[in-house]
Specification:
6 helices
Length: about 200
């Protein structure tokens, strides 16, 4: 039986939509403990423009503060950080700041990292559309190299022809075949991680 992980899953710029809850249930069905913080405090968006307006109104610093506060009660558990698009960016920032992070699972989004970033031995997996207007090839190539220099063990999976948020069945971006493939690989990635320590 695969080892159970404690996963914190962050939503995209659309907010905590049904697709995020469905993803969490998929992970729970695989035996994992999953937490889904609501960084928008109940607000959701119907379009990417509305979502970006909510994000910009809250501000990046406040979103990160809310994310840190959400994971603080779990910080001694050795977390797997995961997220969709904007949530992937937030997950990456938190994972690289957490020496106990067990892994980083990214769907549709990455974040910049500083030259002194350290991710020694951190397993990282990214699933991204190809091409993706929000994650262009030049950016992803540079990100991959910088993550490698930071010590992360990075895998990148690209899905030709898929829309940006191709795992969300309620959005025009959805690509059922790409989503199924991404989830199969992601669940196998989690299965291969070492068992998490028991909760105190």
């Amino acid at each position: 039986m695969a080892a159970s992980q404690t996963i914190v899953l962050f939503h995209s710029a659309y907010g905590l939509r049904p697709a995020v809850h469905a993803a969490a249930e998929r992970l729970r069905a695989a035996g994992h403990e999953v937490h889904v913080p609501d960084l928008y405090e109940g607000r959701t968006a119907e379009t990417v423009e509305d979502g970006m307006a909510i994000k910009d109104g809250i501000g990046t610093d406040e979103l990160l503060r809310r994310a840190v506060a959400a994971v603080a009660p779990l910080s001694d558990r050795g977390l797997v950080y995961a997220g969709f698009s904007l949530g992937g960016s937030i997950a990456q920032n938190l994972a690289l700041a957490d020496e106990k992070a067990r892994a980083l699972l990214l769907f549709h989004g990455t974040s910049d990292l500083t030259d002194d970033a350290s991710a020694d031995g951190l397993p990282v997996q990214l699933h991204v559309a190809d091409p993706d207007p929000f994650e262009p090839h030049d950016w992803l190539n540079a990100w991959y190299l910088r993550m490698g220099r930071a010590g992360a063990e990075v895998e990148v999976y690209r899905y030709a022809g898929a829309g940006h948020l191709f795992t969300d069945p309620d959005l025009p971006d959805h690509d059922a075949e790409a989503a199924a493939a991404a989830w199969a690989v992601a669940l196998a990635f989690l299965d291969e991680l070492e068992p998490a320590p028991e909760a105190p």
